[in-house]
Amino acid sequence: PGAPCHTNRLINEKSPYLLQHAHNPVDWYPWGQEAFEKAKRENKVIFLSVGYSTCHWCHVMEEESFKSKEIGEIMNKHFVCIKVDREERPDVDKVYMTFVQATSGGGGWPMSVWLTPDLKPFAGGTYFPPEDGFHRIGFRTVLLRIAEQWEENKDALLESSHRILEALRQTSEICVQGQESPPPSKEVMDTCFQQLSRSYDEDYGGFSQSPKFPTPVNLNFLFTYWALHRTTPEGARALQMALHTLKMMAHGGIHDHIGQGFHRYSTDQHWHVPHFEKMLYDQGQLAAVYSRAFQISGDEFFADVARDILLYVSRDLSDQVGGFYSAEDADSYPTTTSGEKREGAFCVWEAKELQALLPDPIEGAREGTTLGDVFMHHYGVKETGNVDPMQDPHQELKGKNVLIAQCSPELTAAKFGLEPGRLDALLQECRHRLATARAQRPRPHLDTKMLAAWNGLMISGFAQAGAALAEQGYVHRAAQAAAFLRTHLFDPTSGRLLRSCYQGKDKSVEQSAVPIQGFLEDYVFVIQALFDLYEASLEQSWLEWALHLQHMQDKLFWDPKGFAYFSNEAGDPSLLLRLKGDQDGAEPTANSVTVTNLLRAACYSGHMDWVEKAGQILAAFSERLQKIPIALPEMARATAIFHHTLKQVVICGDPQGEDTKEMLHCVHSVFSPNKVLMLTDGDSAGFLYRQLPFLASLERKDGKATAYLCSNFTCSLPVTSVQELRGMLSP
């Protein structure tokens, strides 16, 4: 293509999403004072558009409306237009999404909101088609009507925006009521289990009909519920629900059987046809969940899926300096000569393609059987395509196949007269050939923005998998990423985290001219990652940094009046509300995770005021936890950990000694949700000894590696055998 016809201010930004819009005929501004002052000076409505670079419907609205010269002229004439990358600025996104959800009953991206010059919202929605249709008003019509209303009824709109903001301020407030204490964990856990059990899909797993999201927070809750109720029918059901869901997801089309990793969500009940984008936060959480499933069940199937996810992230989402990229797009060009991107084009197959790639006859199978026959049967491939037209409204997948493992290996092997062991090798050869062929297709867009919070989730995934699967390479990769964060997303002068950095043109790491400061979720997920990395590596410097960041989080975000943490710092006049997230969704909300972080921090430091803070958070969310804990399964899980008290598992031994390694392997192989691990090696000058003086009284017994189980810094009798240690770890 030739030089673009238009270039706007977004060309100076670092965000891949904002750069995607830098050549729209719309006079876009980034979020900031220049745009705000223009709106006030010219007394214009602000049109705020929020999205992210791998968002399918964001691409659609850009193609239909923001690339239209005619619509661009309407926008430029009547509005000051601002673009926001929701992944860079979750604070801005959350304020206006709260408004859109409250006024329209739904939400999503792209988010479209109209604001007064003082940033108060008065109208909003999500995706708008460009022109009026049977069921939806068109974007052009909305723009012209709002411009007309601003000219004729400005005072009414201003009054309306003021009322709306006050109502949002009252309804979104989360604070402790009177002398409220943390809710009782048994009731919260039982109610959450019952609510999940009622919404559970007995056939296909998951917790809705469609669309179906992976929701690691639900699975982590069920694992903890099982661990605390192992001998009961409810405990057995909790475990069955979690493991069945994980198996069905891994067999489904939401799992990329050729390129590894998981897509965003399934559009159907069967985990078959996904929305094809791949997000870093899903990979990080799912790697950890599948590792826990392996810990609990001993089934190598789950370990293999965890390895599959980490292979994908290492290969496709990793920066050469050590950080992790944010996402891969759903849309791509079907061929190198295509003029239009299609959703899923990189991942789907026609039957004739597979037959051409896999023509080899299989020796020893039923006569005439080819590799293609076996592969197509096993993965549900049909000559006419296997995608239900109901899941493909734009007919982008017509005649295509999304691979889904519909048969067990035993059934597929029996159908073609093969040994089950041989089938695995044949399918692996097929997948390898398809991966080679797929590599020739144009790749989807890669969002090379690196976010502290999502890197934290991915570090946890690598660290927990490394510990549970006894794979030191994963622990090293987690440490490399943590070192990247310390170099590129931490300011040692102020002691604060930064939100984001970016891959530069020469593959270097770049920062914005004015770096975005870290939000609560950045601190919470990085602190969790550093605790996980310490337990996997036993390198005390990660512990020291985690505790520093916890102190900084308290200083920047704690609400001393209503308790719990705000999502963003005080002092930004452009943010109309200071919110506290109240729902565990695709990612757990920060206050949910921070309860467990605070309990872990107290165990590693002896600062018991962190235990008090954890209780105050639970008290602030007490009403929600008792009525609808299914909205906060991670916080419900943390309620149980708070009431059961974390156990400190202390191993005294030489880190290089085989007896010490055996004990550490034992601890890592057992799923125990209410423990923290620490290793003491006799170095009284070490960080842990300075934090926890009681460790000096613990010593090796008979010169062997020795384990102690401590609660509130009071320790059990020492044990030196792995069998005794395993018994200690069971609830």
TrEMBL record:
This is SPT20 protein. InterPro entries: 6-hairpin_glycosidase_sf, 6hp_glycosidase-like_sf, Ssp411, Ssp411-like_TRX, Thioredoxin-like_sf. CDD domains: SSP411 (cd02955). Pfam families: Thioredox_DsbH. Residues 7-168 form the Spermatogenesis-associated protein 20-like TRX domain. One of its GO terms (biological process) is carbohydrate metabolic process. SUPFAM superfamilies: Six-hairpin glycosidases, Thioredoxin-like.
